[in-house]
Amino acid sequence: MATAHDHPRGHDRLRLRARLRYFYHGASPAAVKFRLMVIVVDLVIISFFLAAPILKEAGWAFYVVDYLIAAVLALDLAARAYAYSNVRDWLKRPIVWVDLFVLATLLFPAWLANLGFLRLLRFWSLLNSELFWRTIGRRYDDTRVEEITRAMAALVTFVFVVTGFVYAYFRGKAEHINGYLDALYFTVATLTTTGFGDITLPGNWGRVISIVVMLVGITLFIRLAQTLIRPHKVKFPCPVCGLQKHDPDAVHCKACGQILNIPDEGD
């Protein structure tokens, strides 16, 4: 029976998959440099998303850049899917669906123009991805830095997603919301419950949105505060019960009492 190794094309596909796995999942310096480049490109794309409400005034040039970014993102997602051992398992991850939705807003800007503000979810998906923590966060074995980073990512993403939503749907309809900075000012003032009252959203739906922003904002602030105040822990799986987080000086697992041998930070 013929196998993939008996055909040049099948052999090339196996080599390509192995190469992609090497770059996306490997620990060698070359693989780390490749992932660093991917992260830098992601940050540039996110910067474009952040400035998109203003850059749209550039006309056709904006859509040229939009489709170029769509091509880059589609290529990256296809490469990640091909490098993953099981595509079905890969598609079950929420972060993947966030990225696919962002790609859809890039491919169909005319139809999904009002949902363009959701592209900033790419920032959240980046800072919650395995690729990011395998590359940037690989030097941090404790959970403190990771939890703080994830909490900050959730808060920052929420601020700019709400800002984009307010700008897209209330510009020119709400008093004093005429630009992106006005929408950002309203979001921060509402989220922090400062409530100056100089910029408000009209109607009952405006009040509902303001309430949601305040409640979610307070929740995200509390989560961030908890990660900053919470006692420092390290990630060390218990060999018996699998508990992941322990105190740095823990001798026994709090869940099952198993003796632990957590390496010192200097080891």
From TrEMBL:
Pfam families named in the record: Ion_trans_2
Compartments, record wording: Membrane
Record has Transcription as a keyword: no
SUPFAM superfamilies: Voltage-gated potassium channels
Domain of life: Bacteria
Record domain Potassium channel: where: 157-229
Membrane topology designation: Multi-pass membrane protein
MF (Gene Ontology): potassium channel activity
Keywords: Ion channel, Ion transport, Membrane, Potassium, Potassium channel, Potassium transport, Transmembrane, Transmembrane helix, Transport
Transmembrane segments: 34-54, 60-83, 95-117, 148-170, 182-199, 205-225
GO cellular-component term (any): membrane
Main location class: membrane
Keyword check for Ion transport: yes
PANTHER family the UniProt entry points to: CALCIUM-ACTIVATED POTASSIUM CHANNEL ALPHA CHAIN (PTHR10027), SLOWPOKE 2, ISOFORM D (PTHR10027:SF10)
Protein name: Two pore domain potassium channel family protein
Organism of provenance: Brevundimonas naejangsanensis
